Amino acid sequence: MTSASTAQSANASGSAAGPTNADQATNPAASGGGGRIPAVVRRRLDTVDARLDRGRAWLATGVVVAIAAILRFVGLSGPNGKIFDEIYYARDAYGLIDRGVEWNYKDNGPSYVVHPPLGKWLIGLGEWAFGYQDAETKISVPGHLMTTAPEFGWRFAAAVAGTLSVLLLVRIGRRMFRSTTLGCAAGLLLALDGFHFVLSRTALLDIFLLLFVLAAFGALVLDRDARRRRWARALEAGLDPTLPGRAGRPPSTWRDWPWWRLAAGVLLGCACAVKWSGLYFVPAFALLVLLWEVGVRRSAGARRPWRDALLDELPWLLAAGALMVVTYVLTWSGWLLGDEGYYRLAERYPNTPGLSDTPVIGPLINLWEYHKAAYGFHTQLDDPHKYQSWPWQWLLLGRPVAFYWSGDGNCGAPSCASEILLLGTPLLWWSFLPALVATVWLGLARRDWRAGAIVLSVAAGLLPWFWFALDGRTMFSFYAAPAVPFLVLAVVYVLGAIVSPAPVAGTAPPPSTEATADRRLVGGIIAGAYVLLVALCFGYFYPIFVGRLMAYADWSARMWLDGRWI
Questions:
Q1: Which of left, alpha, beta for 75 (phi over 0: left; psi -120 to 50: alpha)?
Q2: Is the four-CA dihedral 112, 113, 117, 119 of positive or negative sign?
Q3: Contact at 8 Å (CB) between 132 and 139?
Q4: pLDDT tens digits for 345-374?
């Protein structure tokens, strides 16, 4: 293969291979002089231009986010009362706002909880703003900002988190695929997913976990772009990447620190402070950073990209990890700074007698012991539940969770039904597995970093649960929530490939076999028709996403897998 064909192949695949001999002959940076970067290296280091089509892109983003917000906030107060696990999280959230720790008002003592507090703090902010009410404990508190139906208060934060996650996915998709259309398609599909929709209207923790994991991923994508721009500027200035030591690397000042990577550490700390399953994304995201750093060094022409990446980036990864730990501990401040939390004092925790008398170390050790007890609870959770399911059932919608059910009310039929079912929009969810297979295939064929990032993130969100399934642990489909945005990205990646056979991200100039205008038109029609069908499917199932009262026969018609969905 000639040097020219090698370069063209590398461009088309978006690979991170180093420059060829022909490149070095015309590349003063790679051969030790000048500052001009050849086109092949420039394309390898290229990133999306944030200024490109800015006004229209934000307008399109606003339309998608508005759709998501309207769907999530309209009728948020219904149904009345606490549904499913709101009975735990809404009460714990009020305790955090009222006393700084989760509190059992019925028995007037601290509550024993097995999830960190951040998600409940966020739920509690909505209760503080809009009011809280609990019929069992006869608590009725007006909101500080306004008084609404109490259900709106404890569901408000979830609706905000769901809307923000749609916004994030639009912008992440646009940056990864370099297409406002594909970015908006990703956000719209997430907005029209029944699974995400129901979690966005219920005071559970999983929507907050999804939000922080997705935000951390977005921060790392921004970090990748920033680091590649840094290398491109250095090469333009005459950097010789073949020189040993610091001489062959871009100059570093505090302005060049990987701020977005450090922000990702804070966001991952927030994810873990909602649910410990946020930890599963830590090694996956660290691996992504390392692979991207190796790739940028290969693209620039460094002689030892792996060694250099480890030496340069490991300290920053450790710094991000330290920020993650600090962020996590800070979310326990209510428990640490007071003495009312469950197991906070030594007399409540016989394993650490006297340690609570130590101002700093004692509370931290007690917190560690508390975590050990909570971990034991999780690992021994194997009680059968009506709506439990196994990880291999989740993407097939094998066993959704009923959050609410009522047969009362007048619907004009002999029998009525009202249900909130945590069910993914079937057409979208049944596309996930084929899309994952196609993403793996296309990613390997094109050596496309986007496909690798999507698949690795999906694996981090799903594969650990297969391991826990070996022990017979009780699981529910909502454990898959953090993987959903990445599954949607897989679908959109494939839609982009259908529209055009060129790399979805557009890293390369159009090859000679670029799709004709007719092919793009047909592909666009197929992709548009798919999104429209998902929207129609969502509309059909909408009544069982919001608990709308309907005739029992209409409800039954929506139970497509009646043996599994009822």
A1: left
A2: negative
A3: yes
A4: 655 555 555 555 566 777 888 888 888 888
